[in-house]
DNA sequence: TATGAATGAGTTTTCATTCAT
DNA sequence: TATGAATGAAAACTCATTCAT
């Protein structure tokens, strides 16, 4: 029942909505907030200039909406794995990592938008973003080490440290392949995820030796 | 003796060249390519507007030159450590990592320029950049595992894989602390490098158990 | 039974008509023709956007209608005093002047609209206005000196000239206090009218000496 | 030696400057600040869009400059009559009035700009104007009754009041003929000034009887 | 060679008006 | 008949680039 400032946009047919959103995502992902052009967006989306502003009010509001949308799409993915919590540390983190990798593979443009949003963006926009997306971040946090089977760990190993190391490895891999995902198709991307998973298991094998009894 | 399109710039006194370059680096790092203002640059550099274009021809050419310069400065650092190659894998990679960390600590602005250059930049610029800087990347590669003391490794461990894992950890850490470096002074940055090194050694300890006999 | 282009508007209930008119008067008086917003008007009036244009056809036609209405309201006041004609010239003109002053005091917004309508308005609008309101001006003229007690006048004084001088004084005073009326409440305005009347009588005293025996 | 923000404009040839100024004066006088269009100005002036903003920076700054210019031109006229101070009150005020009338006759558009500037203009502009033009107003004030030959006055007449009455008459006349001046040529305007002066003397004759012995 | 005045294509945004229902 | 979603022409302003000197 709450009115959003975006109601004009949200009541149009889903198909049109998607087409327009895609145009925005593409433009903002490619050029960032400032150098993205509303002219380019309306051209891509095939809508008149006035209509864009009728829907979103301003470029800033449009950007915030689009990023919000991206965050929501991303968060939904994580929410899906809420129940899934393998008791083995490696499997647990690998599973989470794969979800993220698959998202990047399937939605490389959307992820790029998300990735850039918190980096190259005017301060005022960044502040606004933080306050909007803070809740999602909080919701998706959750403890990584809770309910783990600790019996396998060597006594002198801090499980939190171990988790951090594994996470670092996963993040390093994501970062390493990020550029590649941007350049290939989602199909190729999903194949790449398999490849990365395999690579990952090799590293995990090494670490496992150092952590487990 | 090949003519560069930058000869007008390169024949002026080194001192002036440096002042102008610094003005450009600052502006581009702070605002990104598109939002950076040539007006702001000439003001910072204390040169007439026309002169900037006399030197560099266009904003795009200027940006490419500046990024190229940054890449060169970065690469030079790596070249310096050519001789230094500890025979222990962890020490070797940690040493290389520290060089990079220190560069980021000491030149956060320059690094930011470099980092952004491949992310938030118009496609045409990005393409141009890749073709220009590819050669440097290739040149600075070098084998990580050459001349290592392999006697300590467990037989079933591939040293290349081990090196990759360690490198991944280091890259993950850089990524994790990048934002912080951008916000602190070089002095504080160097202190942070020590802290990160300590954190790194903890992770290495875990990995070492899994790799060494 | 001539059809006006405003018939759609004029057939709605008088109450609604008044509410809509007031909204228009307020908006046009405050912001002038061009800067006045039809959005603001429909909001104030509580009617749908399309309905405003259904009623009036265009912003220009709306404005002309509203000004016309204001002119009519103003003229009606003058018509009311048709019977009242003191035989003393000063009293007669002062009486007429007070009617005008009181109108300004009581309807500062309406008068402002009227005043502005002939000054700051696009040429085409102004031309249209003149042709429409000319008739009213003519109708409200009437002789100022008819039925006067001429016995008090010095022989060498032309009563028409004397009347014109007095009128000039009154007009000068209105002009002088116009801005003040716009800034105060109708209540304060009526007090100001008393004050102006007093000032007026002082001037009249001087003139009386020059005109009467 | 003081730098003005208008130096870019002020260093161009006087001929061009005048042409541009005239275009601005015309547009602003006709439409007022808000509804004046910078597009229309550049078209009238025959200069590119960017050049207007290169010269003046913003529409607001342009408007302030133009009004300032008008005020200066107006004030200069008054300054010329500094020495001229007939000792007869009527002659003194008539003389001043004629200067004003002639200005209006010769520069009807400029005067219209001036007249509107303090009436129909956004608050922020009006404030700025007041602070800029205050000094001129102050400078041109001067006592109206100083050095008058008071011997001719009847004892019960306050010379200040008498002066105020005469001034009111002159202002009333200006107001009465303002619209006419706007519609005729400067040549016709000067003829009209003579006519008004004659009319004025008739009124003065009446007042004189009431004021002088 | 070196310059800075001048430019015009580009930017975001507003809002009176239309038209399908 | 009455509506409100949709529009496009116009607004003010920016800035990399050019070119006469």
3D architecture notes:
Four copies of one chain form a homotetramer. Chain A has ten helices and no strands. Chain A has 213 residues and is an all-alpha fold. Chain A has a single domain, classed as Tetracycline Repressor, domain 2, CATH 1.10.357. In chain A, helix 2 (14-35) runs antiparallel to helix 3, helix 5 (59-80) crosses helix 7 and helix 6 (89-106) crosses helix 7. The longest helix of chain A has 26 residues, at 186-211. The N and C termini of chain A lie far apart (56 Å). Chain A binds a DNA duplex (21 and 21 nucleotides) through residues 8, 11-12, 37-39, 47-51, 53-54, 57-59.
Shape of chain A: elongated
Helical run tally of chain A: 10
Model regions low in confidence, pLDDT < 50 over at least 5 residues of chain A: none
- Mind telling me the CATH class of chain A? Mainly Alpha
The CATH superfamily of chain A is Tetracycline Repressor, domain 2
Architecture (CATH level 2) name of chain A:
Orthogonal Bundle
What is the H/E string of chain A?
HHHHHHHHHH
What oligomeric state is this? Answer: homotetramer
Number of strands of chain A: 0
Beta-strand percentage range of chain A: under 5%
Distance between the termini of chain A: 56 Å
Structural class of chain A: mainly alpha
State the helical fraction of chain A.
over 70%
Largest interface: A-B, 32 and 33 residues
Radius of gyration of chain A over all CA atoms, rounded? 20 Å
CATH topology name of chain A, in short, is Tetracycline Repressor, domain 2
């Amino acid at each position: 029942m709450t009115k959003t400032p975006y109601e004009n946009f949200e009541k149009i047919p889903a198909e049109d909505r998607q087409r327009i959103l895609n145009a925005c995502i593409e433009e903002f992902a490619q050029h960032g907030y400032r150098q993205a052009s509303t002219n380019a967006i309306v051209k891509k989306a095939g809508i008149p200039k006035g209509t864009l502003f009728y829907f979103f009010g301003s470029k800033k509001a449009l950007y915030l909406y689009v990023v919000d949308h991206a965050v929501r799409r991303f968060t939904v993915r994580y929410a899906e794995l809420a129940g899934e919590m393998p008791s083995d540390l490696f499997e647990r983190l690998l599973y989470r990592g794969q979800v993220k990798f698959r998202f990047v593979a399937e939605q490389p443009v959307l992820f790029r938008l998300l990735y850039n949003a918190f980096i190259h963006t005017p301060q005022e926009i960044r502040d606004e973003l933080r306050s909007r997306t803070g809740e999602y971040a909080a919701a998706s946090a959750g403890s990584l080490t809770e309910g783990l089977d600790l019996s396998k760990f060597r006594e002198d190993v801090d499980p939190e440290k171990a988790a951090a190391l594994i996470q670092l490895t996963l993040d390093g891999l994501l970062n390493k392949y990020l550029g590649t995902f941007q350049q290939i198709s989602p199909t190729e991307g999903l194949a790449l995820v398999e490849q990365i998973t395999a690579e990952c298991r090799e590293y995990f094998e090494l670490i496992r030796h150092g952590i487990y009894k």
